C-alpha cells in the first residue's frame, strides 16, 4: 500500500515542522504530539518514513550500525571491524511502530528461544529498540502505555544504549532513536515528569478553517481513489523536501548562536519560569535546526520565535491552565521580551 505523501498533508504546520526539526537534530529529545483523535498524527509519522533520506549502515548488521560511528558499534560490528570486514550499504532510516500491547521482551529484545532450544546457545533476538536505532520510534497513544515501559523508553532514548541483563543474557547495543509520541489528553494524563523529557511538544487540532477542512477531505479522497497517481503528483515536492533535509543535516554543525540570542533565550525561560536548564538547551538546539532548515548559518530571533512554543509549552510551571493556554503564554512572553530587545537594540 502506498503511503500518503508528507508534503500532501494540509495544515498541522507545527507538528510537521517539529518532525523535520527532530530529523535534523535527533538529540533534541523527540516530539510529543498532543491533540484530538483523527487529526492525522499517525498519518504524518508514516508519511515521514517515506520522506526520509537513506543512510549508510554496516552491511548485514541487525542494528544497522553507522560505520562512521566507531564508538557506537554493536558487539557484532566491533568484531567485524577487528576482522577488517566492515562493509556498508545504504538503508532506509527506520520508523518503527510500538504497538500499545507490546511486551517488554518485544521492546528490548529477548533470548532467542528457538536457537536456545535447538543449538543450546544463548543468542539474542533484537527487539523494537534495535530496529529503531538511528531512526524513529513511534508510540501512538503514549498516555495509555504502561508507566514502566515509558520510563524504559525515555531512559534508552536519553542514553542511546539498550542494556539487556536478563534470562542469562548480558549485552548492550546502541539504540539511538527519536521518540515520537502521540496522545489524546482526554484519554489519560501524561505524568508531568515525563512531559519535560520530550524535546518538543506540539498541539494538534482539528482544523476549524473551512477551506482547510475541505482541502483535507479532497486530498484524502483523491489519495484513496488513485494512490499511485496522487503519490506521483507530490513526487517533486517530496524530493525537494528530502533535499532540504539532507542539506540541513549537513549545515547543522556549522550553525552558530550569537550571544544576544543566548541571552534572549535565557530571558524567555526566566520570564516563563521553566524548571531547570533543559528548556533552554532544547530551545537553542531546536532554533539551530530551524536555522539549518532555512539554509541559514546564524540563529536569529525569528528562528527562536518559530520554535519557542514547541520547545517550552510543556515545561511551564504546573498551573491549572491547560496545555492550549501554555502555548499562548509562551507567545505572550515572547511578544513582551522580543519587542523590548528590539527597542534596546
Ligand atoms: Zn552493528
From TrEMBL:
InterPro entries: AAA+_ATPase (IPR003593), CHLI-like (IPR045006), ChlI/MoxR_AAA_lid (IPR041628), Mg_chelatase_ATPase-isu (IPR011775), Mg_chelatse_chII-like_cat_dom (IPR000523), P-loop_NTPase (IPR027417). The keyword Ribonucleoprotein does not apply. Keywords: ATP-binding, Bacteriochlorophyll biosynthesis, Chlorophyll biosynthesis, Ligase, Nucleotide-binding, Photosynthesis. Pfam families: AAA_lid_2 (PF17863), Mg_chelatase (PF01078). Its EC number is 6.6.1.1. It comes from the Bacteria. Pathway: Porphyrin-containing compound metabolism; bacteriochlorophyll biosynthesis. SMART domains: AAA. It is an enzyme of class 6 (ligase). GO terms for molecular function: ATP binding; magnesium chelatase activity. SUPFAM superfamilies: P-loop containing nucleoside triphosphate hydrolases (SSF52540). Residues 27-208 form the AAA+ ATPase domain. The keyword Nucleotide-binding applies. It catalyses: protoporphyrin IX + Mg(2+) + ATP + H2O = Mg-protoporphyrin IX + ADP + phosphate + 3 H(+). GO terms for biological process: bacteriochlorophyll biosynthetic process; photosynthesis. PANTHER family: MAGNESIUM-CHELATASE SUBUNIT CHLI, MAGNESIUM-CHELATASE SUBUNIT CHLI-2, CHLOROPLASTIC. Involved in bacteriochlorophyll biosynthesis; introduces a magnesium ion into protoporphyrin IX to yield Mg-protoporphyrin IX. Belongs to the Mg-chelatase subunits D/I family. This is Mg-protoporphyrin IX chelatase. It comes from Acidiphilium rubrum.
Amino acid at each position: 500500500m502506498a503511503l500518503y505523501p508528507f508534503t500532501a498533508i494540509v495544515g498541522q504546520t507545527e507538528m510537521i515542522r517539529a518532525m523535520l526539526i527532530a530529523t535534523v537534530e535527533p538529540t533534541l529529545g523527540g516530539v510529543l504530539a498532543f491533540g484530538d483523535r483523527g487529526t492525522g498524527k499517525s498519518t504524518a509519522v508514516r508519511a515521514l518514513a517515506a520522506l526520509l533520506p537513506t543512510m549508510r549502515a554496516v552491511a548485514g548488521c541487525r542494528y544497522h550500525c553507522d560505520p562512521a560511528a566507531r564508538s557506537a558499534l554493536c558487539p557484532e560490528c566491533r568484531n567485524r571491524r577487528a576482522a577488517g570486514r566492515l562493509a556498508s550499504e545504504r538503508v532506509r532510516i527506520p520508523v518503527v511502530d510500538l504497538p500499545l500491547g507490546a511486551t517488554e521482551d518485544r521492546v528490548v529484545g529477548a533470548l532467542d528461544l528457538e536457537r536456545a532450544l535447538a543449538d543450546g546457545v544463548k543468542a539474542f533476538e533484537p527487539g523494537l529498540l534495535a530496529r529503531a536505532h538511528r531512526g524513529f520510534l513511534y508510540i501512538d497513544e503514549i498516555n495509555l502505555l504502561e508507566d514502566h515501559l515509558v520510563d524504559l523508553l525515555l531512559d534508552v532514548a536519553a542514553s542511546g544504549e539498550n542494556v539487556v541483563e536478563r534470562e542469562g543474557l548480558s549485552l548492550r547495543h546502541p539504540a539511538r532513536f527519536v521518540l515520537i509520541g502521540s496522545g489524546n489528553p482526554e484519554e489519560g494524563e501524561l505524568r508531568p515528569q515525563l512531559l519535560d523529557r520530550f524535546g518538543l511538544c506540539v498541539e494538534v487540532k482539528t482544523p476549524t478553517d473551512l477551506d482547510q477542512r475541505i482541502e483535507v477531505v479532497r486530498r484524502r479522497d483523491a489519495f484513496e481513489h488513485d494512490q499511485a497517481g496522487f503519490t506521483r503528483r507530490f513526487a517533486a515536492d517530496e524530493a525537494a523536501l528530502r533535499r532540504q533535509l539532507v542539506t540541513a543535516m549537513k549545515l547543522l554543525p556549522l550553525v552558530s548562536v550569537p550571544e544576544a540570542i543566548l541571552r534572549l533565550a535565557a530571558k524567555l525561560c526566566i520570564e516563563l519560569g521553566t524548571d531547570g536548564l533543559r528548556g533552554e538547551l532544547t530551545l537553542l538546539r531546536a532554533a539551530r535546526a530551524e536555522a539549518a532548515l532555512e539554509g541559514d548559518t546564524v540563529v536569529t530571533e525569528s528562528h527562536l520565535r518559530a520554535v519557542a512554543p514547541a520547545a517550552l509549552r510543556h515545561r511551564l510551571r504546573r498551573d491549572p491552565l491547560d496545555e492550549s493556554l501554555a502555548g499562548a503564554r509562551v507567545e505572550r512572553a515572547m511578544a513582551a521580551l522580543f519587542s523590548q530587545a528590539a527597542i534596546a537594540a
